[in-house]
Amino acid sequence: MKLSWISIIIAIAFIYTSCSFEKNHQPEIPVISLERPESGSGNRDKISFTPTAEFHDSLFIEVLPSVEVDRHGNLYVAAERHQIRTVYQFSPKGELQDTIGAYGKSPGEMESIQGIQIRGDTLFVFDDRLNRTTQFDISENRLIGVTEYESVISEVSGEKVELFPVPVWRWSNGEYLIKMQDIRNPAIFTNRLQQFRLGSGEGTVQKDDFFELQTEKYLIGDLAGRPFAFQLPYPERSLITELNNGVFYTVWTEEFEIIERDSTGSIQRVFTFLYNRAPLDAEEMIREGYSHNRQLQLTRESAVYPEKWPAIYTMFTDDLGKIWVALIPEDESVFEWWIIDPSDKQEEVQQTFNWPRSSLFQHAANGKVYAVESDADGFKKVVGYSY
């Protein structure tokens, strides 16, 4: 019996030592400290943009959540307005060719458009209210099919929570990246995490998390004795780019720290820069936005504001795999854009430039970049620029 106990102790010690050895000898994740090009270095403000076409419709669209380009250069614009949920198809010159989809719950209709994606001749429309993906053949602009996902009960921090699957985009292998949406009140449940899983084309979702990110941050104020959650114009949030050649990127916008992941979700590299974040004037935010409503103003006055804005506002990858990042400088009229080439062994950023905040780049392909802007009446349009 004594010998058996000794054997057990030795076995436990061996397992512990082996685990410690493996943990201590895991390959380190490369961290790349980026270098900002100085003015006059050749990369700073060298890029120029020439408008080539405008894409708009007479219906005066109020929200344009996503744009995409097919292999022929046609532009697809996801648009929302009161009882309008559709995708506009434009020629490369800006001529309206067709509309795809409509508002509603039937097949081929959408209640909300979180984003769109094109793979070959298939347009995927991701609906975050109906929790489904609608597929259209854009060669004939006809409905192909609908993939719906059911809510699931998962354990979150020891509590059973209903999560709603929201498709984000389609992988090249036919699976979908699914965001498991936690719709609990953010004023009460303040420390939520955002789980991502993989879903099939038949509507099933894997039980295990693919990876997880932080949920967007809310400020909490007092509304007549109750906690009330609200967001700043540029909130701290997680961003994720579309998979490109087996690689995608995530970031928590508070700091400049872009994480490169492979198709399994594993972290491969981290790109960092110590960005001098712009100061946030809380009194100005309260005064300008809510002086017309005393109760809302009091609610926002009761909240605790961060001292600075996040470092990053938005991020996307182009068709060449380059990362476009919009930083938030002190100059409130512009975003500071960086173009990063992850394949370049140099640590200097490929390009930086300032661009008006009223013209927000959303997509870049085939030597063109597409920005969402407003016309003279405040309605949205897309403008294409060559660069």
Overview of this protein structure:
With 387 residues, the protein is mainly beta. Helices cover 10% and strands 45% of the residues. It is built from 3 helices and 30 strands. Strands 1-23-22-21-20 form a 5-stranded mixed beta sheet, with no helix packed on it. The protein has a 5-stranded antiparallel beta sheet with strand order 13-14-15-16-17, with no helix packed on it. Helix 2 runs antiparallel to helix 3. The N and C termini lie far apart (79 Å). The N terminus is likely disordered.
Mean pLDDT: 89
Residue runs with pLDDT of under 50 for 5 or more positions: 1-25
What about the largest sheet?
A: 5 strands, mixed
Count of DSSP strands = 30
Order of strands, main sheet, comes to 1-23-22-21-20
Tags for this entry?
5-stranded antiparallel beta sheet; 3 helices; disordered N terminus; 387 residues; 5-stranded mixed beta sheet; mainly beta; 10% helix; globular; 30 strands
Describe the secondary-structure layout.
Layout: H1 2-24, E1 31-33, E2 50-55, E3 63-69, E4 75-81, E5 84-90, E6 96-100, E7 102-103, E8 109-110, E9 115-119, E10 122-127, E11 132-137, E12 142-148, E13 152-156, E14 159-170, E15 176-182, E16 193-199, E17 211-214, E18 219-223, E19 226-230, E20 238-240, E21 247-252, E22 257-262, E23 267-272, H2 282-290, H3 294-301, E24 312-317, E25 323-327, E26 334-340, E27 351-356, E28 360-365, E29 368-374, E30 380-386
Parallel strand pairs: 1-23, 7-8
Antiparallel strand pairs: 2-30, 3-4, 4-5, 5-6, 9-10, 10-11, 11-12, 13-14, 14-15, 15-16, 16-17, 18-19, 20-21, 21-22, 22-23, 24-25, 25-26, 26-27, 28-29, 29-30
